[in-house]
Batch of 2 targets.
Target 1
Amino acid sequence: MSIKVNDKFWERYFKLIRDEMIPYQWNVLHDQENITIDKERDDENIPSEKSHAIQNLKIAAGLAEGDHYGWLFQDSDVYKWLEAASNSYAIHPDEKLLSMMDEVISLIEAAQDEDGYISTYYQINNPKLKFRRLFESHELYCAGHLIEAAVAHYKATGSERLITVSNQFVQCIKNHFGDEEGKINGADGHQEIELALVKLYEVTKDESLLELSAYFLEVRGQDPDFYKKQLEENIENGLSQGPVPTINNEYHQSHKPVMEQEEAVGHAVRLVYMAAAMADVAYYLNNEKMYEACKKIWKNIVTKRMYITGGIGSTVHGEAFTYDYDLPNDTMYCETCASIGMMFFAKNMLKHETDASYSDILERCLYNTVISGVALDGKHFFYVNPLEVQPEACQKDPGKSHVKATRPSWFGCACCPPNIARTLTSLDQYIYSSNEDSVFAHLFMDNEGEINLDKGTVAIRQETTMPYSGNVRFYLELDNINKMRLGIRIPSWAEDFQIIKDGKEVEGKLDRGYLYLEISKRQTVIDVHFEMKAIQWASHPLVRGNQGKVALQRGPFVYCLEEEDNGENLHLNSITNQQVTEKPVEDSALGDIVLLETIGQKEKITKEWNERLYQKYATKEVEQTQLTFIPYYTWANRSSGQMQVWVNKKE
Amino acid sequence: MSIKVNDKFWERYFKLIRDEMIPYQWNVLHDQENITIDKERDDENIPSEKSHAIQNLKIAAGLAEGDHYGWLFQDSDVYKWLEAASNSYAIHPDEKLLSMMDEVISLIEAAQDEDGYISTYYQINNPKLKFRRLFESHELYCAGHLIEAAVAHYKATGSERLITVSNQFVQCIKNHFGDEEGKINGADGHQEIELALVKLYEVTKDESLLELSAYFLEVRGQDPDFYKKQLEENIENGLSQGPVPTINNEYHQSHKPVMEQEEAVGHAVRLVYMAAAMADVAYYLNNEKMYEACKKIWKNIVTKRMYITGGIGSTVHGEAFTYDYDLPNDTMYCETCASIGMMFFAKNMLKHETDASYSDILERCLYNTVISGVALDGKHFFYVNPLEVQPEACQKDPGKSHVKATRPSWFGCACCPPNIARTLTSLDQYIYSSNEDSVFAHLFMDNEGEINLDKGTVAIRQETTMPYSGNVRFYLELDNINKMRLGIRIPSWAEDFQIIKDGKEVEGKLDRGYLYLEISKRQTVIDVHFEMKAIQWASHPLVRGNQGKVALQRGPFVYCLEEEDNGENLHLNSITNQQVTEKPVEDSALGDIVLLETIGQKEKITKEWNERLYQKYATKEVEQTQLTFIPYYTWANRSSGQMQVWVNKKE
C-alpha cells in the first residue's frame, strides 16, 4: 500500500512538522533552544533543566565527557525525533534533513556497545545494572523506539544503517532474554519493544521477531514478583543497595498474564502499547486467544474508561486508569501519548475485523486529543489534555499541578512532542486497510495512492471537503483485476448519509458500521455525503461529572467553550433547546474552523450572594447568553482562560 | 464560670469518652491494643506499625532502650490524651483514671531534660538538632499540647505537677527564643504553643506568657527565609547534610507577617490554631490591629472556603486551603482537627464581639464535622470528613486514598482521636460567655452552673429538647446583683422563634444574631422556642461541585444520604418540591435521631446504556423514589457504602 495525503487540513500539520517541529525539537534535543522546560507535574524529582538527549549519546559514544542527565528513557526522544524526521522526509524529501538524520544515526552507531546494547543511562552511569532493573529501566522501551525509527528511516530512505543497529540490539536482547536457564525470563516495565518487533518483522520478514514479541507479551505477569526478585538479586549480588521499593504490578500490567486481563488498568500508555502489540502479534501468528484478550481490553476502555475526546487515563497518579465510569473532567490525565497508543491499538484491531467501533475511536483520538497535544504554532505541547480547565485551579490546587492551562514549550518527560510528530507524519498508514479482494476506507481526507490486492492493484483517490463538511469523492481504477469491494466507514457522527455510484444511490445494510460496494468497472467514481450536523452527546449516568451535561460534536471534532469567547465562569452556562448553528470562519488565531453557536442561558450571581457562601435555596436567576464553541483541538491557542467540554443542558 | 453539662445527647459522648475512648486510647498509646493502624493517606513514609508514644517517653526518660518511632510530634498524642483524661475527670472523678494520669505525668517528668526541654524524637535521635529544624520539628507544638494538658489537669485536680513541668519548658523556650542577639528569632512550623501560652496565662496570670505568645505570632513570616536559613546553618555547622528541601512557606503561614494575611492559606489546622491564638492574644493585649487581622481571616474562611459541614481544607496536598469557592466534595480534606480549631477560633472571637456569625459556625463545626470524626462506638475515627463518598473511588483512585469510606481504628498520624476527646470534654467552656453585666448563651443543651459578673453571680440552668427539637428553658437566679442582660443566640437555622419571659412574649430586634433580655428579678424563667424545620441550603454559584444541588439541615445537623437507606448510585437522586418530613426514630445503630424523608426522583439507567458510554442526548427517564436522610455525624456507622451531602435539586 502506498498512499500520499494531500489534504488541506493535514498538509498544514505536515508543513508545521517539517518547518517548525522537527527543527525545533532538533534544537531542544541538542540543548540549543532557549526555552523553559516544564515539569509535567509538581514533583521535585522531574529532571527539567535541559534535554541533554544528544549529549547523553555523545558521552556514551566516548565523544564527550560527563554524566547522563534526564530520565532513564531520554534516548527515546531522539529515536522518536528520528522516526518523525524519516516520515517527514518520505512526505517531502529534503537534503538538509537527510544530513541531520545521518548525523544522529552516526552518533547512535558510535554509542552502540560491541554486543549491540544501547541505553545511555546504563552505559554511562551504571553498566553493571544493564537489564537488571527492568521495572523502571526502559532499556527495551528505548530499543523499541530505536527499531521503529529504523523501520521508518529504511522505508523513507532505503538506508539500512539503523536496521543494522537494530538487528544487533535485537541479537543482544535475544542473548539475554528468554525462558532458557541463565537468561532473564521477563519483560520491560514499559511495553514498546513488543510492537516495534512486529514492525521490524514487516520489513525483514524475520519470523523470530514475531516470536520474540510474543514471548515478551506472554511472559508478562506470569511471575508477578519478577521485578521485585530482580531488585532483590541485585542487593544479594552487591550491585545495589536496599530497600527494595514497593512495586505496583498493575502499573505496568504485570499483575497477571496478559491473556487473563479483562480490564484496562495501570499506566495508560503502557496498556495501549501492550494491547496494540497483542493485536498485531495475534494477527500475524493467528492467535485467536490473544485477539479475544484484546477485544476484552478494547471493550472495557471504550465502553467504560474513555473520554469523549478519545482521552484515556483518569488519574495523574501513575498516569493511569482507575475504575469503570470514573472520568473526572478536571483531574484526568488523558495523555497525548495514550491517545496515540489508542490509534495504534485501533489500527491493529482493524487488521482482524473491519468494524467501525475501532475506526470511529481511531478518528476520535486523532482529531481531538492527539492534535490537541500540539499548539497551532507547532512549538508548544500538551502532555495532559483536560476536558475542563480553570487556570486558577492549575496554580492553586496542587492536585491539579499536572493540568496546564496553556501548552508548555517542552517537558521534563518529553515523550509527547516527538510522538505527535511521528504519528501525524505516518497518517497515510491509517486511512485504509485491505485484504485479498477488498479495500476498507476508515478515514476521510484528500489522498491518493495504490493498494495491492491479491490479484492486482487498485489506484485510489479521495477528494473531500472533510473535516469541514461531509463530502467525499472516491476515484478507483483497477489494474489487473476485474472486481473488488470497497468498504466505506459510515461515521457514528453522521446521522444520515448518501452514496452515489454511477449516478445511482447505493442502498445497502451496514455491516459493522461499513457500507460495501462491489466495484467491477475499470474506473469508478463514488460520491459520498455524510450529514455533518452538531450532535449533543450525553454520558452514561454513572459518569458523575457529566450528569446533566452534554458535549457537542460536529464531524470528527468534539467542541468546547473557551473563556475568550464566552466570558468567565463557563460552568454557569447551559445549553437550552435553541438551535445550534454552524459558522465557518477563517480565524486569525485558530485557522479555518467551523464555530458552533447557540443561544443559551447563564446563571447570574446575584447581589444576595455577596459575602455569603450558603443561603436558603431559591430558584436561580438566569439570563440569555450567546454561546460560541470551538473545536477542542484549537483550545488554548489564544489567551489563558477557562475551557469546558461538557456543558450543562437545560431540559 | 463553672458549668456542668447534663445533656442527654452530650452525656452519651462523655460516657463514651470515659468508658471507651480514654481506656482505648491509653492502650493504643501503650501499644497494647490489637488493631490495624491506617495510614491517613497512601504514602509509604507514614509510620503506621504502632503508636510507640509512651515507649518514646520511656526511652527519653532512660527507663527503656531503643529508637524513637513515629512522627516527630508523637509526644503530642500523649499530651492530648492527658488533657482529655483531665477534662473527663472533671466531669466524672475516678480514682483509676487519676492514677493512670499520674503514671503518665511521672513519665513526662522523668523524660524532661535538666534545662526543661522535652521532645522525645530529638532527645533520643538527634539532640544536636534541638530547635534547629523548626519548619518541621513540632517541638513547640508539642510544648503547647503539654501546656494545655497541664492547664486542664490543674483545673481538674488542683495538681501543679504538670504546671511545673510546663513552666520549666517555657523557661527553656524563653532562653532559646527571642529577638535578642544569639537567640532563635522565629516560631515553630506548626502553631499551637501560641494558644497554649494564653491558657497558661489564664491560670497563672503570668503576663510574660502573653508576650511570648504575641512574640511567636508576630515573628512569623517576618523573614520568609527563616526556616531555610536554619537548615543551611545546620549544613554549614556540620550538623546535617544537604540538600535543603524546598520549603513552602504558605504551608505554615510564614509567607508574610500574620497581620498582613487576609486569606486562609496553607495547612488548615495550623491556620486556625494560629488565628485562634491571634484572637486570644488580641483580646488580652487589647490589640485592635490583630483583631482586625483575625476578622479578615475569619471572613475569608466562612464566606469563601468552608464546607456546609464546618469542614475546612480543600485538598489533601498539604492538608490545605486552596482558593476561593474551591470546595470539592469528594477530594477535600476537612480534617476533624481543623474543625476543632475553627471552634477554638470562634470561641476566641466571641470574646471580642458577641456575634452569631461566630457562634453559628461554632455550632456548625461541633455538631457536624467534629463529631463525625468519631464513630458511635468511640473506637473508630475519621481524619478526613468527606461530603461525598464512593467506596470504590477510595480504593481505586489514588487521588482519594485519604478519603476513607469507614472510620479506621487509628492513624499513623493520630492527631484527631485525642483531639476529639479533649474538645468534647471541654464543651462546658463553649456554651456561654460573659462580660461585666451580661451573659451570652451561644449553644443550647441541658446544663447548669454559675457565671460571675462584675457585681455578683448568676446561677443559670438550661433544660432543652435540643438537638431534637427547638425548646430551651432558661432558669436564672441572681445573687448579689439586681439586674443583668441575657443574650440568646437565634440560630441561623431557626426560621422563626418565640421567647416568653414572665408569661409574655419578648419582642425585640436582633443585635448581630442575638436577642437581649433585661433580667431584673431574682428568679426568672425564660422559654425559648426555635422553629426547627428542614432547610434546603444552596451554595454560591462559584462552588462548582454544588451547582444545581441542595444540602438539608435541621437544627444544628447537616444531613446526608447513605447507600444503606437509599440504594446505590446516590448521585442519580434528586430532591423535588415534595415536602420533607421529619421522623424521629430510636435506631439500633444510629441512636436517637430524627430522619428526614421526602419523595424524590431517581434517574434510571435504561437498557440503551448497555455497553455504551456516550449516546445522543435524550430526555432522561426518572422514577419516584423515597429519600431518607440521616444526620451527617451518624454516617458510616453501618455498612460501608456511598454517602452524599449535596443532592441534586429538581427545579
Target 2
Amino acid sequence: MERIESSANARIKEWAKLLQKKERDRTGRFLAEGDHLIQEAMKEGLVEVLISDHAEDYEFEPKILVPEHTVRKLSSSVSGAHSVAVCRQKQSVPEKTDRILILDGVQDPGNLGTLIRTAVSFRYDAVVCSMETVDLYNDKVIRSTQGSLFHIPVLRADLAEYTASLQKDGVCVIATTLEDAVPLKELPRPDRFAVILGNEGNGVGRHLQDAADVRVRIEMSGFESLNVAVAGGILMYELGAKAE
Amino acid sequence: MERIESSANARIKEWAKLLQKKERDRTGRFLAEGDHLIQEAMKEGLVEVLISDHAEDYEFEPKILVPEHTVRKLSSSVSGAHSVAVCRQKQSVPEKTDRILILDGVQDPGNLGTLIRTAVSFRYDAVVCSMETVDLYNDKVIRSTQGSLFHIPVLRADLAEYTASLQKDGVCVIATTLEDAVPLKELPRPDRFAVILGNEGNGVGRHLQDAADVRVRIEMSGFESLNVAVAGGILMYELGAKAE
C-alpha cells in the first residue's frame, strides 16, 4: 500500500480536479466518497484507486494512504468521509426499453438522485436525461442515489430524437403535465412505456408534450403542487414496477 | 414606513435570534424569507412585521425599510431574498381526522417539507410529527413546503397516545414497514385512516408498528430503498386524496 503525505502531490491535485464537472466530463471519471457509495461502486467494478486515511479499510488495491486533510481535500465539505474512490463513469446501454424514466431538465441534484434511486427500486430499465439536466456526477446527486446510480443505465440524449426512436420501436411515450391531460387513474397501462418528467419550474417542454403519445396528470385537489421526485415516484409505482 | 439603518438595532437583533430553534420555540414566532413564502404567510394572516430593503415591495404595514446587509442578517445564507417577515406560528387544530399523515422521527428538513407539501396537494387533514421530528420552522423545511406549510395543521404529539386516540375514534392506523406487511395494492382502503412514515434510517418505531391496525409495504423489486418523501407520496396518492 502506497502512502502520499502531501496534498501538493501531483496525483492528488489531479484527482481533486474531479470535484469539477469540466474535469469529470473530460476524463470520464468521478469521485465517490464514504464507505457505502464506495462499496456500491466496487460491486460494479468502477473503482480505479482507493484513497483513505484508515490503513485498515478495504482489501482493495491500488489503495493509497493519505492524511485526513487530504481526504477532506478530495471530498465535498459536508461529508465526513474517511475514504474517497476515483471511479470511472459507467457508459452502459439499457438491455431493454420496457420501462424508461425520462427527465427533461431536472435541476435539483437531490431530485435527480432520488428519481434514479426510485427507478432502481422499481426496476426500471434506464433513466434518460436531457442535456440541460443537472450533472449526474455532482456529489449531491450521487449521495441522493444512495449508490443506486451504479445499478441502472443513466444516459444523456437529445430527448426529441430519443423519444421519436422509442415510438418507432413501439414504446408508448407519456408526458406529465398539469393541463389537457388524462388523470393517472384513467390512464391505460401500456406494456412498454417511457414517462417524461420536467423541470421543477417549467415542467416538460412544449415540443415533448406535443410529440408524446399521451399526456397524464396526477389528480390533485388543494395546493396543486408536487415535488418532481414525488410525482415521479407516484407515476413509476402506478405505471408498474417490472416483474422479476 | 419606518427605517432602521443599523443591524445593531435592538429589534433587529431580537428578530435575528429567530434563526435559532430555541428562540422560535420560546416566542412562537419564525422568519419567512422571499416573496413567495411571505405572500403565502400573508394569506393566512401570519405576518406580524415585514422587513425589506425594497421600499416599493408590499402594501403591508408595519413595514420596516432596512439596508440589504440587514435583510441578509435575518435570512439563511442560501437565500437571496430582499424581504423577510416575522410571522407567528400557526397552532391550528385539524377540523377533521379522516386523512392524517403521521411522521415518526423524520430528520431531513427537505423530506419533512416535501411531505407537508404533498399532504396539502392531496388535501390531507393534518400532519402529526413525533417530538423527535426535525423542527418545522427550520428555514429548509419552510422552503421545501413552498409555502404550503401555512395551509395545513401541523402538530407535534406523543405518537403512542395520539394514534391510540385516533383508533378509539375509529380511524384506521396504518404503519409502513418493509417486512411482515400487506402489499399496498392489496391493502383495503379505509374511509378514515392515518398513515405512519418513519425515520430515514430506522423506519417506524417498533411500538408504533405493533400498535397499528395494519402494516403496509410498497412493493419493490430491485434496490429495495425509497426516499421517505417518495414513499409518502405514493402512499398518500394510493390511499386516496380527499374529494372536494
